[in-house]
Write a structure and sequence with these properties.
The complex is a heterodimer of chains A (about 425) and B (about 220). Chain A is α+β, with helices and mostly antiparallel strands. Chain A contains eleven helices and twelve strands. In chain A, the strands form three sheets. Chain A has a five-stranded antiparallel β-sheet, with helices on both faces. In chain A, strands 7-9-10-12-11 form a five-stranded mixed β-sheet, covered by helices on one side. Chain B has two domains: about 5-120, Rossmann fold, CATH 3.40.50.2300; about 120-220, Arc Repressor Mutant, subunit A (Orthogonal Bundle). A five-stranded parallel β-sheet of chain B has the order 2-1-3-4-5, sandwiched between helices. A four-stranded antiparallel β-sheet of chain B has the order 6-7-8-9, covered by helices on one side. Chain B starts with a strand and ends with a strand. Classes of the chains: A alpha+beta (about 425), B alpha/beta (about 220). The interface of A and B includes residues 308 and 311 of A. β7 (about 310-315) of chain A pairs antiparallel with β9 (about 145-150) of chain B, so a sheet runs across the interface. Chain B: It is found in: Cytoplasm. Chain B: This is Heme response regulator HssR. Chain B: Keywords: Activator, Cytoplasm, DNA-binding, Phosphoprotein, Transcription, Transcription regulation, Two-component regulatory system, Virulence.
Chain lengths: ~425, ~220
């Protein structure tokens, strides 16, 4: 702006002021010396700073003194002698001080003038202070207004940013006391909106998790309590003095069955929680699924014998990388289920074979099968196909949950083909790698 | 009476097995170490030994080797699950079978019975008939593509019939051979087992069939 002034305005300004000064001089020259002073006063009041000096060197200011009054006597003399002083035009250029505002005598224009035969030099410059005083107020007001406005705007924007965060904080606090139903009313498309969306998702999952955990604990307590209850009841019954041998045996068998169930339950719970913590399998080793199956079949042969069941196997799968004890558990669970849910004299078929880049292990039984609804829950923890947790078949309802867990850890998949009274085929697919 | 030697350094285990085996009509002599077992064998006649592998001083493999060399009795080894690889070593040392700990008593009983039956009847030969192979040692039937495991009684009936194909076996012969002379069950037992074997053969070995010879008994023959 300063540059602009020096470059373009200064010259015009000078010329304009010289013209005004010349006019003033012409007007003043028409007065006599007694009228000079009031006239100058008037001119000074109209927005000009004036300095007048006569040939004797007596100078007077009108319309406010100049801040700096440095002008050589020689220069004033030349003006008195008839020259025009172009102080504005020649005012030295300083980078940061706008020449326009410099309230100095140097920064004025001077014209000669003769009043009553006495030579004078008249220097004028617009009284910027006076002219701009009001403008300054206006600008100041404007600036303060703008500032207030922007602060207000900032507060509004901040509020818009902070409000949803406060809202989320409140919801979080509610979540800490397990209340998940506080609505999240943030519908925005920006980052905050995304945050709210992920937050809602997380909250949903947390809620589900908590629900599952409660369910799990309920199930566990139920499954631990009821065998304990049975053991207690039947032990009390056994205390009765007049029991027949047959009754005694029957009651003892029940106690035995229930303790077995408890022991199995704790073992399986342990392996499930251990599995839950594992996200990636370590200690993978090359292993023969076929050998594992032979071993499993051997171990269950007496159970097959108990139910007088037949079993056929055709084991042709290649070796894969896997965790031997975990997979062995899978085969044991599957075979144990197949036997458990088969009728007496039934048959079981076990097959392993190569299938492109995976191997498939399928176990088929001719047992009671599952309805679609039962199948949907079969791999859930504590789900048992025999309704009402009947004690007719042993088992904890954790077997297939463990199977699912282990197979997923091996990046494998499970497919089931079943129908009520149609038997069940469970196929496990494991990548060869 | 059949006498069984049980060797394990876990005394509670031995006691439990002893009580249970007694209940099923077996006489039991017990030893808590390999040395004790070998000493016992000098004075007692034993029909079968159940031996734990993990024992101090002389382990189960060594005991098995000794017993097999001198007395030629069947041996079942007890192995913990994590040493299941030892089963090969077990078979090399001469054991007839193995059981993985922890086991259910019924499993042990099943294996003892199976082995005793095999030794008793010296039926560890393999019979080939039609498309199948009947292995008396493992109680398995091999077809072209599959291995079958039948319930023991069914297996024995099938093996009996297969031992002389096309010959007729009377119900009494079958009962005597498979269930024993003192069997007190009814005649229907044989019928029921024959029926079950037929069912299983129809899926696994359709080239074989059991024919009823009215008023006489049963025979096994190829389908023509």
């Amino acid at each position: 702006m300063n540059t602009y002034y020096h470059q373009f305005v200064k010259e015009d300004n000078d010329a304009k002021n010289v013209a005004i000064a010349t006019e003033m001089a012409t007007y003043l020259e028409g007065l006599d010396s007694s009228q000079l002073s009031p006239a100058l006063d008037m001119l000074g009041a109209s927005g000009y700073q004036l300095y007048i000096e006569d040939e004797k060197g007596i100078g007077l200011f009108y319309g406010g003194a100049y801040r700096e009054k440095i002008l050589s006597e020689d220069l004033i003399s030349t003006v008195i002698a008839g020259d025009v002083y172009h102080g504005m035009l020649n005012f030295p250029r300083k980078t940061f001080v706008t020449g326009f505002f410099a309230n100095e005598l140097r920064n004025s224009v001077g014209v000669p003038l003769t009043v009553d035969g006495i030579e004078h030099a008249l220097f004028i410059r617009p009284n910027i202070d006076m002219l701009f005083g009001e403008l300054r107020l206006l600008f100041g007001g404007l600036a303060i207004g703008l500032m207030l406005l922007s602060i207000l705007g900032m507060i509004l924007v901040a509020k818009k940013l902070i409000d949803p965060i406060t809202h989320l904080t409140n919801v979080t606090k509610k979540m800490a006391i397990e209340s998940f139903d506080e609505p999240i009313n943030i519908h925005r498309k920006d980052e905050i909106g995304q945050l709210a969306e992920s937050f809602q998702l997380m909250r949903g999952q947390l809620k589900e998790l908590l629900k599952k955990r409660k369910e799990f604990v309920n199930n566990v307590s139920h499954d631990i309590q009821s065998p304990l209850h049975n053991i207690q009841s039947y032990l009390t019954l056994l205390d009765q003095p007049d029991l027949s041998k047959k009754q005694q045996t029957a009651y003892r068998n029940i106690v035995h069955l229930e303790t077995t169930r408890l022991s199995q339950l704790t073992k399986q719970l342990l392996s499930l929680t251990t599995l839950d913590e594992v996200t990636k399998l370590q200690d993978l080793e090359p292993l023969s699924i076929n050998t594992q199956w032979l071993e499993t079949i051997k171990r269950f042969r007496w159970k097959l014998e108990e139910k007088e069941m037949g079993l056929s196997h055709s084991l042709k799968a290649d070796n894969i990388m896997g965790n031997a004890p975990l997979l062995q558990t899978v085969w044991e669970n599957l075979l144990s289920n197949a036997i458990k849910y088969s009728e007496k004299n039934g048959n079981i078929y076990i097959e392993t074979y190569n299938d492109d880049n995976q191997i498939t292990i399928s176990i088929h039984d001719e047992g009671i099968g599952m309805s679609e609804e039962q199948l949907n829950q079969a791999f859930d923890r504590f789900y048992r196909v025999d309704k009402a947790r009947s004690r007719k078949t042993e088992g904890t309802g954790l077997g297939l949950a463990i199977v699912k867990n282990i197979i997923h850890l091996h990046k494998g998949s499970i497919t089931v083909k079943t129908g009520l009274q149609e038997g069940t085929t469970i196929s496990i697919h494991l990548p060869k790698e | 009476m059949t006498r069984i030697l049980v060797v394990d350094d876990d005394q509670n285990m031995v006691k439990f097995v002893q009580i249970e085996l007694n209940r099923f009509g077996y006489e039991v002599v017990s030893a808590y170490s390999g040395n004790e077992a070998l000493l016992l064998m000098r004075t007692q006649k034993v029909d079968l030994a159940v031996i734990d592998i993990m024992m101090p001083e002389i382990n189960g493999f060594e005991v098995t080797k000794e017993l097999k060399k001198i007395y030629e009795i069947p041996v079942i080894l007890l192995t913990a699950r994590h040493q299941i690889e030892d089963k090969e070593k077990g078979f090399k040392s001469g054991s007839d079978d193995y059981i993985v700990k922890p086991f259910e008593f019924k499993e042990l009983l099943f294996r003892i019975q199976a082995i005793l039956r095999r030794y008793d009847k010296h039926q560890d030969e393999i019979i080939c008939i039609g498309s199948i192979k009947i292995d008396g040692r493992s109680y398995e039937v091999q077809t072209a593509s599959e291995t079958l495991m039948l319930p023991l009684k069914e297996f024995e009936v099938l093996r009996l019939l297969a031992s002389r194909p096309k010959s007729v076996f009377t119900r009494d012969q079958i009962i005597e051979s498979v269930w024993g002379i003192n069997y007190a069950g009814d005649d229907q037992t044989v019928n029921v087992h024959i029926k079950r074997i037929r069912n299983r053969l129809s899926t696994w070995a359709p080239d074989l069939q059991i024919t009823t010879v009215r008023g006489v008994g049963y025979k096994l023959e190829g389908v023509t």
